[in-house]
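In response to reviewer comment 3 from the previous cycle, which asked for concrete evidence that the modeling workflow produces usable outputs, we include below a single protein chain processed end to end. The sequence was submitted unchanged, and the resulting structure tokens are shown without manual editing.
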Amino acid sequence: MRHSLVPPAGPQRVLALAQLSNSVGDGAYYVTSALYFTHVVGLDPARVGLGLTVGWAVGSVVGVPLGRLADRRGARGTAVLLALATGLAVASFLVVRDFVPFVLAACAYASAQSGLAAARQALLAGLVSARERTGLLAHLQATLNAGLAVGAGLGGLALHAGTRAAYLGVFAVDAVSFLVCALLLLRLPSVAPRVPSGERHGSSVLRDRPYAVITLLNTVLLLRMPLLSLGIPLWIAERTAAPAWVVSALFVLNTGAVMAFQVRMARGVSGLASAHRAVRRSGWVMLAACAVFALSAGASPWAAVGALVVGAVLQVVAEMGQSAGSWQLSFDLAPAERVGEYQGFFGTGVTVARTLGPLVLTTLLVEWGTPGWLLLGAVTLGASYAMGPATRRAAGRVETDVRQPALVN
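The workflow returned the following structure tokens.
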């Protein structure tokens, strides 16, 4: 049995190494960027939040045309250029001294990141057979978590030093990590453009209502993303008697579980039916996790710790099942010739969840308390069950497209 962090040799392993490279840089960036922009650059925290929100909003829109570019011009070349562009965008933060340049740099960074994610998915689809994609994505997710953990450790050293040079070193490491990522992607075989150069088409994914519904439902399921970074820390501080160190313990538990078990969780997902079953099961597990988290309120410190740990275990099981199912759905329901474009659109769910998630979770958990947890679980379960009819409708559209040749205007 292969270790969960080591996919088979060849293109799959190269893709994993590229993922590991830039995730180490990103991990260091994530834990230091807020303090760098506020303490070193001197920007107001509210302006930093606004600038990053604007950046990711732009990135979510730009991801679709950049994914389409990968389909039309070749996924490998597009991914390499966008990896280099991301590195340059990170490097530009080193010279930012005012709000407007910061917003421009944030837009460039988020746009390149969103496009790179779509192009890499298109590259993966061109190099790996359909039956192997979900398994490889599980490997990449485990690799991502490992890289982020290492990067977070490096960022922690910079935070401990607290000097301008240390912060600048982190940004330099992140920029170089994307250069290494680009060099690794160059080692992969080239993938021929999927869309014929003479074919004309508009924003087809935006007119594909069944796929849009799948993306919307997946976005609802992804609202749990800020749980570990925001929702649970605030819940522990405001509503429980648990000690503050539990926050980091739960983060380590989540990261370690994904590294160790994500590949195993994805093995049973091999088609639309098994993907929906995985998503539906994850809905029930997430509902149970929310109920257990709610039990930590008003309990003694150690009883609260126990409830939080059990809830975190259930939450990461739900996360891994939902991830595996959604990966399969996102590829199987996309036209083969427009994987990059469709993955760019599907990826906007992550951006929307990261943007709206903090507001939703703080309202539900901190302000509403136990009823908020139960509502979050119920909404998650409802979205997971709605995936069934939405998947059947989207699958019917795919079958119709296969039977009827596309008309070129």
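Residues 402-409 have pLDDT under 50 and may be disordered. We consider this sufficient to address the reviewer's concern, and the full set will be provided in the supplementary archive.
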